[in-house]
Specification:
By secondary structure, this protein is an alpha+beta fold. It is built from five helices and 18 strands. The termini are far apart.
Length: about 325
């Protein structure tokens, strides 16, 4: 084979890969809300601090069960194998507090996670993240006076990471060249800043795109507005400790949402995403890329950059390092 033919084949392969990656970021740009009040998950119960800063989730496509937040339920199939599904009839928001220190001071990361039954298979648009049991993280970083100074969002696989400052973020903490304008993130537009200063009892609102379950909007609304029945149909979602995910009831005992040993240690059971493995795994050097993860498992970095050489420096399990990687100077 001549050098020219080799180069042509390489070029064609790269073009095909670029096309697939582009398709993976496509979605139906316009989401038309159903008439009447919008469906909103409101956090309930839980400790006062966790409840104060917990996000509400605005859900589109409520008529499809896979668009609703679920709670993991363990059982056994007809062959006796363990299986875990997300039950949308019993929504839950899981949370943990992650205190950390930097040269600038002491902070607390309030980390919230939710899961959905599945991202369905779709060719047009192409959902590269199709699979079961996928989830979302929302991280609210509090300073030493318990003011929210940063909001981070991402999939529980580490993908589609966004970091948004707030009206309490000090000027010295911003990355170099930061521009206070809306951010474009793989086809989604998120605000450049979140204003926690207006209204009483401000609540972070996370808007979720149907099907893909990507975060398509962020905002802060007064609690009183979110309680208006003409605007929102509220669905309670109890705040549960993240450790509950490791003690799911099963046949008189318990099991974990995550693999607790072996090659898949720290990954969510049943959350393999075959398209991502086929099209991304080979070049990012991870055969289970896109598979959702536990937080804080040693040896299983929750990396937020697909480039293999940034696997450890972008690991959200290390919150100070994660913030530094994305340019923030807390």
């Amino acid at each position: 084979m001549t050098v020219a033919k080799v180069l042509r084949r390489i070029s064609a392969g790269l073009l095909f890969l670029a096309l697939l990656m582009g398709l993976g970021c496509m979605h139906l740009k316009q989401v038309s809300p159903a008439p009447g009040p919008q469906n909103l998950y409101q956090p309930q119960d839980g400790p006062a601090l966790a409840r104060l800063f917990a996000p509400a989730f605005l859900i589109h496509g409520w008529d499809r069960a896979y668009n609703r937040i679920g709670r993991p339920v363990a059982s056994r199939d007809a062959q006796g194998f363990e299986q875990i599904v997300m039950d949308p009839a019993r929504p839950a928001i899981y949370w943990r507090a992650v205190p950390f220190k930097t040269a600038r001071g002491s902070y607390t990361g309030l980390l919230y996670r939710v899961h959905f039954p599945e991202t369905p298979v779709s060719l047009i648009p192409f959902f590269i993240g199709a699979g079961r049991n996928m989830g979302l993280f929302v991280l609210v970083v509090l300073d030493g006076t318990q003011r929210p100074v940063l909001v981070a969002t991402l999939g529980t696989c580490g993908c589609y990471t966004s970091l948004t400052p707030t009206s309490h973020t000090p000027a010295w903490a911003y990355p170099d060249g930061w521009q206070n304008r809306p951010m474009e993130l793989y086809g989604e537009t998120l605000p450049g800043r979140l204003d926690y200063g207006g209204g009483q009892k401000p609540r972070l609102v996370v808007e979720v795109r149907p099907g893909e379950h990507r975060i398509m909007g962020l905002g802060v609304e007064p609690a009183a507005r979110l309680a208006e029945p003409r605007l929102y149909r509220a669905h309670g979602a109890p705040l549960l400790p993240a450790d509950d995910l490791r003690r799911l009831p099963l046949e008189g005992g318990t099991t974990s949402l995550f693999y607790e040993d072996g090659m898949l240690k720290g990954h969510v059971k049943g959350a393999w995403k075959p398209w991502e493995t086929i099209f991304i795994g080979w070049w990012c050097l991870d055969g289970v890329v896109g598979m959702d993860k536990a937080y804080g498992v040693g040896g299983n970095p929750l990396y937020t950059s697909l480039q293999p050489w940034y696997r450890l420096s972008s690991d959200m399990n290390d919150l100070p390092g994660f913030l530094r990687f994305w340019g923030w100077r807390f």
